[in-house]
Specification:
Blueprint: H1 9-12, E1 27-34, E2 49-57, E3 59-63, E4 66-70, E5 75-78, E6 84-87, E7 94-101, H2 113-123, E8 132-133, H3 140-152, H4 160-177, H5 187-206, H6 213-220, H7 224-235, H8 239-257, H9 262-268, H10 274-285, H11 289-294
Antiparallel strand pairs: 1-7, 2-5, 2-7, 3-4, 3-6, 5-8
Amino acid sequence: MNYHSINDKNYQQYKEKISHGTPMLPFAHYHTNVSELLPFQPIHWHEEMEIIKVQSGKGIVSVDGVRYTAEVGDIFILRPFVMHAINKLDDNEMIADVIVFNLRLLESGEADVCTLKYFAPLLNEKHSVPCIVRSTDSWYRPFDQSMTAILACDTNNEGAELDIKANLYWMFYHIYNNRLMNVTPNIAEDKRLYTVRRALEYIRAEYMNEITIEKIAKHCGYSEFYMMKLFKQFTGSSCVDYVNNYRLTVAGRQLRDTDDDVATIAYQVGFNNVSYFNRQFKRQYGMTPREFRSSPDGHLEGRDQ
């Protein structure tokens, strides 16, 4: 299999398709509650930067196959195209604020020194930022101040764009000033990540059809044994479990957003046996599909992927 760059057109079709913010202000703020109704968030990625601050509770933040225990005050800084997910930790509930922004928000022109020196390497995956900032870190305070200011910003106010950009610039200043940027690429690791991305997006595109390890491995150009090992390493679950969990996540959204009956939804998301679908749904959500739909809290918190 040939390894393609991040600009490969075939790869680009697999990115998250959601637009964050507007063309004039490519910035969005999400308030996420990782509760019983969101036990599984499919791993995803996008071309925007993402910064997550844990406001209460505990959870798991997965970044390129590494699982971090997220606690109150922790700030996660994710570069473009990094694979990531937020999930429950045992019976804990976690509330987090998430900001997503396109780096072009901070550009002033094609020949701008900031664009060429600081932001282009992030988009090209040459540099990576610190993944996690904890309150015990000596440089935590300025990051927390900037993040707090951004979260308090009302985008409807005059000058809001300047407020957001100023605080984002301060964040990057502290990253580079403290020499916290990783500038050493790992080509072998990049190839493995690219392979897992292809597998994940094959599942996202084909979940309603029959999916086997053989098909996933063939799509990625590797043996079934290697594909299973690699998938488990980076996602923390087997291919079979991930496919089931992804289908159940989609089913939960369909139950929330449509009036389709349970059997129809089961078949639409790839389950050929309604009884098996009901059992698996209750195992993941703690209630039957009908109970989920009739529950006053029968909705998924946070943004859809």
